[in-house]
């Protein structure tokens, strides 16, 4: 039967002009659709998004998923597919995966990620494999991969990092001492001043003899 604006009573065992399907055939799921202030029943082969099929001896029904941001669920408390933009993890939906898990974009699921251990102590400050002879060097610390990720495409966090450090000994013991460049520059300037003064003095003496 067709009751005008109401849905066709296909699959119904009983149908109302005002409320649509009231009872469905065996194997079908009863779904109570709401549109504004109005609601009516439908008999469906599968439940719509946000609902799951609950089979009972009396009548199969479409029950709403109770998991937030869930698109389809296995039961009221276990989501099998989340809404777009959310990752599925152990029957729940998340904007970002929990700590220790990585996002698998193609399936929008959270899988076991790469686990790393604690950082080691900072190593010896060195430069060019030497621990002296320079003012500044680099020191490094590392950490080990404790558990490899479930997928090879999931990257691991960095396992080594370095930072700038000041060396404990700038001059190496027994090394050849060299005069700093600044001292050489000062000596050269002093020599130039002396030569200039001697030249001016010679010019002064020559001028004085001419005037006599």
Automatic annotation (TrEMBL):
<feature type="region of interest" description="Disordered">
    <location>
        <begin position="173"/>
        <end position="212"/>
    </location>
</feature>
<dbReference type="InterPro" id="IPR051514">
    <property type="entry name" value="R-spondin"/>
</dbReference>
<keyword id="KW-0325">Glycoprotein</keyword>
<dbReference type="GO" id="GO:0016055">
    <property type="term" value="P:Wnt signaling pathway"/>
</dbReference>
<dbReference type="GO" id="GO:0005576">
    <property type="term" value="C:extracellular region"/>
</dbReference>
<keyword id="KW-0879">Wnt signaling pathway</keyword>
<feature type="domain" description="R-spondin Fu-CRD">
    <location>
        <begin position="9"/>
        <end position="110"/>
    </location>
</feature>
<dbReference type="InterPro" id="IPR006212">
    <property type="entry name" value="Furin_repeat"/>
</dbReference>
<dbReference type="InterPro" id="IPR044004">
    <property type="entry name" value="TSP1_spondin_dom"/>
</dbReference>
<feature type="domain" description="Spondin-like TSP1">
    <location>
        <begin position="114"/>
        <end position="167"/>
    </location>
</feature>
<keyword id="KW-1015">Disulfide bond</keyword>
<keyword id="KW-0716">Sensory transduction</keyword>
<keyword id="KW-0964">Secreted</keyword>
<dbReference type="InterPro" id="IPR036383">
    <property type="entry name" value="TSP1_rpt_sf"/>
</dbReference>
<dbReference type="Pfam" id="PF19028">
    <property type="entry name" value="TSP1_spondin"/>
</dbReference>
<dbReference type="GO" id="GO:0008201">
    <property type="term" value="F:heparin binding"/>
</dbReference>
<keyword id="KW-0732">Signal</keyword>
<dbReference type="InterPro" id="IPR000884">
    <property type="entry name" value="TSP1_rpt"/>
</dbReference>
<dbReference type="Pfam" id="PF15913">
    <property type="entry name" value="Furin-like_2"/>
</dbReference>
<feature type="compositionally biased region" description="Basic residues">
    <location>
        <begin position="176"/>
        <end position="191"/>
    </location>
</feature>
<dbReference type="InterPro" id="IPR043601">
    <property type="entry name" value="Rspo_Fu-CRD_dom"/>
</dbReference>
<keyword id="KW-0217">Developmental protein</keyword>
<dbReference type="InterPro" id="IPR009030">
    <property type="entry name" value="Growth_fac_rcpt_cys_sf"/>
</dbReference>
<keyword id="KW-0358">Heparin-binding</keyword>
<protein>
    <recommendedName>
        <fullName>R-spondin-2</fullName>
    </recommendedName>
</protein>
<comment type="similarity">
    <text>Belongs to the R-spondin family.</text>
</comment>
């Amino acid at each position: 039967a067709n009751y005008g604006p109401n849905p066709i009573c296909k699959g119904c065992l009983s149908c109302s002009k005002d409320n649509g399907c009231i009872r469905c055939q065996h194997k079908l799921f009863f779904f109570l659709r709401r549109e504004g202030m109005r609601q009516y029943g439908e008999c469906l082969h599968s439940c719509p998004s946000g609902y799951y099929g609950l089979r009972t001896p009396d009548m199969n029904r479409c029950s709403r998923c109770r998991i937030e941001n869930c698109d389809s669920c296995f039961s009221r408390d276990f989501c099998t597919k989340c809404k777009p933009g959310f990752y599925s993890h152990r029957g729940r939906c998340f904007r970002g995966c929990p700590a220790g898990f990585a996002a698998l974009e193609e399936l929008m699921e959270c899988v076991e990620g790469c686990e790393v251990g604690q950082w080691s102590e900072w190593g010896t400050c060195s430069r060019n494999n030497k621990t002296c002879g320079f003012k500044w060097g680099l020191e490094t610390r590392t950490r080990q991969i404790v558990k490899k990720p479930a997928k090879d495409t999931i990257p691991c966090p960095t396992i080594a990092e370095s930072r700038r450090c000041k060396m404990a000994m700038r001059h190496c013991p027994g090394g050849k001492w060299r005069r700093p460049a600044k001292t050489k520059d000062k000596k050269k300037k002093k020599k130039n001043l002396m030569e200039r003064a001697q030249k001016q003095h010679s010019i002064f003496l020559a001028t004085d003899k001419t005037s006599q």
